[in-house]
Amino acid sequence: MAAICGFKTVKTAYQVLNKSRRNISISQKWNVQISHRKNVQVSQKRNIQLALSGYHFPDYELERKNFSLQIPEFFNFAHDVIDRWADAEKVGLRRTDVPCFWWVDSQTKQEVKLSFQQLAQISKRIANALVSGCGLKKGDRIVVILPKIPEWWFINIACIRAGITLIPGTTLLRTSDIYHRLKLSQANCIITTADLSHYVDEA
After folding, report:
1. In the list 30, 53, 116, 168, which could disulfide-bond 129, CB 3.0-4.6 Å?
2. Contact, 190 vs 16, CB < 8 A?
3. One GO molecular function term (predicted)?
4. pTM over 0.90
5. 69 phi, psi to nearest 5 deg
């Protein structure tokens, strides 16, 4: 069992072994835990402040008039958004008591609240597990069959960070459905829960 903020779920990554995608075996089990880094020093506080200054609009009409969309040549949501705000939290330019991620269990009402720093750290650990543990690389495809739990978002951001294409699947998928998706997508890996893993084994 792996626990995140007290919410327990089993996450098992399966590596596809042959081209037909019919033989699947467990390749990696990993735990994701939240840790807090203290006294982080960031030398480019001024640069971060300037980069984030555009998010404060004292004069809406003036901002609207002068606004122009700057499209970067390369953009990665994990690096350019999550990590940027995480850096802002480290140097005190953003409050850490205002969560960037807030999840509530619809049945138990249990909550998971994370700062940008925590979300960045979790996604980096998962990305490392996918790349180092499962041998995935940029451009590979991964099928994720999970219920509406925090791990779904964590894995999504991790895939963006590592350049891996995520293919979401509903928990209603069964053996034939999973086989069909694996065959068409040519996915290199699949992540699901223990309750659904036997459908993957049968695919």
Report:
1. 30
2. yes
3. medium-chain fatty acid-CoA ligase activity
4. no
5. -80, 120
**How far apart are alpha carbons 138 and 129 in whole angstroms?**
14
Distance separating alpha carbons of residues 6 and 27, to the nearest angstrom: 25
Q: What is the pLDDT along the chain (203 residues), one digit of tens a residue?
A: 222 222 233 333 333 222 222 322 222 333 333 223 333 344 455 555 555 555 566 788 888 888 888 888 899 999 999 999 999 999 888 888 899 999 999 899 999 999 999 999 999 999 999 999 999 999 999 999 999 999 999 999 999 999 999 999 999 999 999 999 999 999 999 999 999 999 998 98
Would you put residue 39 in left (φ > 0), alpha (ψ -120 to 50) or beta?
Answer: left
Judge contact between 134 and 173, C-beta under 8 A. Answer: no
- Residue 193's SS3 state is coil
Cα–Cα dist 89/91, whole Å: 6
From residue 49, give the alpha-carbon distance in Å to each of 79, 93, 164. Answer: 17, 7, 31
CATH top class, domain 2-35+133-202: alpha beta
